[in-house]
Amino acid sequence: MNAGSPDTTEIVRHRSRLARLAERADRPIFFAFGLVGLVALGVILFFVIREALPIFRYVSPLEFLGPKWYPTSEPPVFGALPMIVATMLVTLGALVLALPLGFAAAGFVAEVVPPAIRDLAKSLLELLAAIPSVVYGFFGLTVLAPFVQRAFGLPTGQNALTASVILAFMALPTVASLAEDALSAVPKAHREASLALGASRWETTWRVVFPSAFSGLFGAAVLGMGRAVGETMAVLMVAGNSPALTWSFLRPVRTLTAGIALEMAEAPQGGAHYHALFMLGAILLFIALLTNGLAEWLCGRVTRRGE
Amino acid sequence: MRTHRSARLRRATEIVAFSLLGAAMFVGLLALGVILYYIISRGSGAVTWEFLTAFPRRGMTAGGIYPALVGSFYLTVGALAVALPLALGAAIFLVEYAREGVWVRVIRIGVNTLAGVPSIVFGLLGLALFVKALGIGVSLLAGALTLGLLILPLLIRTTEEALRSVPRNFREGGLALGATRWRTIRSIVLPAGLPGILTGIVLSLSRAIGETAPIMFTAAAFFTPRLPSSPLDEVMALPYHIFVMATESPNAWKTKDLQYGAVLVLVGLVLVLNLGAILLRAHARRRKVW
């Protein structure tokens, strides 16, 4: 208490009954606060699914997985397969780049460099993660897409390949940071035992540390995948947004996220198109629950240190 | 002789392998450097005082980003106002009241899952719940609520970490003096954890200011001739402004300089906030001589 404030007992005496009640009810009050994350998750599930389900009044679930997406033709056709394939394509491409880079960078930070540089490297990776996705999209649109266009002689550089590369760098910090956590969680005794048996540091890293951290590394890969699947703005700006079904990395594609972002403004509220877009969101939500559940299970044994 | 050579081979393998690991790290940092260099070198010419304080003019092909900056500020602060009380309460429960068990595990999984929900799905929720069901309409308020939910898990985790770093005997001291648990938390634990909590707040602001997908259907307007006068007005926002200028404008190439300028301002804000967080964290760690 600083000098100017009234006497403490005075405050206590004048405290309202409500405050005194709160003082004793603190446990249930904070328990309710503790549930806020779960409640938010429940609300998201409820509202997205509630707005998504009416699409099945217009098309059957099987039709919704069809190969053609013409939401504004007459009659409209809602087949989400092109967007599902596009999302898979772009995510696969991103992981092919991000996983080796992320795991290797994590190995470097966890096993090679001294602790002082380790903190600096992790901070810089955090900055890479902090750059907003619209900025990645802008960079992809103005720098990478023209480059890809020229390199492959394509009519447009906005395609699945460009989106994959941009996504890879966006997922890289997630993968590297979680992988580093997994590697650092491997007990020191494992390394010491290996070194004592005459293995070099690299042999220890490669044959002992990486295999021991397998489940944590797998968890990092799964969460990196979740990042790539759910990313919107960058993909929207660089993937080209063609709703035609394609398996080629060099063609423009429209992912689930981009489809929602692109079309919601044109979809009349409460119409079939609107519900169809929410169903795309429900698919994304389902994938997110799946990847997070899997990662949670895989990382269960890894002690989660600060993120 | 043979063992000698194999030892050298093993040594060489190690050097090559570790170099490759380092190269991977370097590629990541190089990407950061290239992006930052590109944006700064192209954008710095466009960022003037007028650019920061003027409205867009001539169908957004000239002028500045003032309304987008103001809108982003309102949205971000609003999101924090929504999320902070909830996150503080949740973190206090997890650290101070909960005992490790099924409940805590379920809550933690819930928070982690919430953090993994794609940002566009938050946008859908905002549209279905705040804009439609609650009838708030496309507005600053709906956007702030949506962004608030989005940063909630990040804020819970960082606050939880901050409270956890406060030593146990601080609490014991408070309780031993006869203070109630809540009183101990309020007067001892929260002040001691404040630098860490502030770090989390700054990181959340940096996350919220750059998000575009959640505000596309809930708050953001292509152009508003005035600043918002109430929480129920649509607002311009810096990341959405960048998106629109770069993709939807029929003459995107004409506004290139404005786009670079806007991107530089956004990246600058995010970098400043993140550097602030790094410094705060360093400060929080240094103070820990207790």
Order of strands in the sheet with the most strands of chain A? 1-2
Question: What name goes with the CATH superfamily of the domain at 70-237 in chain B?
Answer: MetI-like
Quaternary form: heterodimer
What fraction of residues of chain B sit in β-strands?
under 5%
Mean pLDDT of chain B: 90
Give the distance, in angstroms, between the N- and C-terminal Cα atoms of chain A.
Answer: 36 Å
Q: Considering DSSP H and I runs of 4 or more, what fraction of the residues of chain A is helical?
A: over 70%
Mean pLDDT of chain A: 88
Poorly predicted regions of chain A are 1-6, 302-307
Strand residue percentage of chain A? under 5%
Rounded radius of gyration of chain A (Å): 25 Å
Element string of chain B (H = helix, E = strand): HHEEHHHHHHHHH
Biggest sheet of chain B, strands in spatial order?
1-2
Shape of chain A: globular
CATH architecture of chain A: Orthogonal Bundle
**Helix coverage percent of residues of chain B?**
over 70%
Counting DSSP E segments of at least 2 residues, the number of strands of chain A comes to 2
Instruction: Kindly provide the name of the CATH class of chain A.
Output: Mainly Alpha
> From the 3D coordinates, which CATH architecture of the domain at 70-237 in chain B would you assign?
Orthogonal Bundle
